[in-house]
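Quick one: structure tokens for this chain, please?
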Amino acid sequence: MVVQIVLLIAALLVSWLVFTLLINIVKTTVKTAILIAAIVLVLQLGFGIGPQVLVDQIKGLPQVVWVFIQEQLGNNQSQ
């Protein structure tokens, strides 16, 4: 009988922890989505930059970073 009560309490505790974790994940996801939407809205209304242009720039970002790294390594080796 005592073991069943301990198991019940442990199960409730684990359930509460998982529920709390999921709530925190959802809250963080919603905050991030709202922030991204606000940034896209400001870019579109303030500068006339549409979402597709932003996506294209994000897709090209790895290439820009790669070129930057190569330039930095090239500059450091020549010095």
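Residues 1-48 form one domain.
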